[in-house]
Amino acid sequence: MGGMNIVLFHSTYGLRPAVHAAAGRLRAAGHEVQVPDLFGGRTFATVEEGLAYQEEVGRDELLKRAVLAVAPSSDRGLVYAGFSYGGSVAQHLALADDRARGLLLLHGTADLEEGTTADELPVQLHIADPDPFEPHDWLTAWYLRMRRAGADVEVHTYPGAGHLFTDPDLEDYDAEAAEAAWKAALGFLDTL
After folding, report:
1. What domains can be seen in the chain, in order of their start residue?
2. Strand runs (DSSP E) across the chain, as ranges?
3. Which of 82, 68, 70, 77 is nearest to 23 (CA)?
4. Do the beta carbons of residue 183 and residue 156 sit within 8 Å?
């Protein structure tokens, strides 16, 4: 099968080198990848700074930026992907796009609105265990809601890893967990 068209959303830290490196890894595997910058060039040293910026700009404005970023290529059947906060953005867009080919979530999920459908949408989640931002009760409820919505969900957990364990520039980085996640993610993309 040919490569996928992937849109990869950054985390609360902004569009940092690790996101570009991840896009490079996906391109090397034969995929087309776009990495929208929802923060207009701003990056942050801490989660708190990133969250403050998100609050200042507003959730609706950030989602609007994401929609505008993917609009030119949404007719091609995108795979939505994202890191942490970017995973929640990717999930919102994938569930609203009936042409979505897949959803790859790294370190983050989002709530589902009542009545959401995801007819057989392939979804793969990679998450630390435990994860301070995605407690077990939340993940269980998320999984059940996604399944009820019709998604084909696969969850990979990484015991002892930090929240953003795929980012080599952060304290959370776990090389072994990151390699395992990327191997599974690339395998997932090959099945789409």
Report:
1. 5-190 (3.40.50.1820)
2. 5-9, 32-34, 78-83, 102-106, 122-129, 152-159
3. 82
4. no
Give the integer Cα–Cα distance in Å for 42 and 40: 6
Rounded to two decimals, what is the model's pTM? 0.97
Burial label for 113, CB within 10 Å (0-12, 13-18, 19+), is exposed
Tell me the backbone φ, ψ of residue 137, rounded to 5 degrees: -60, -40
Would you place residue 2 in the very low, low, confident or very high pLDDT band (cuts 50, 70, 90)? Answer: low
C-alpha 87 chain-centroid distance: 3
Q: What was the pLDDT predicted at 64? A: 97
Q: What sections of 35-104 are H helices per DSSP?
A: 47-57, 59-70, 85-96
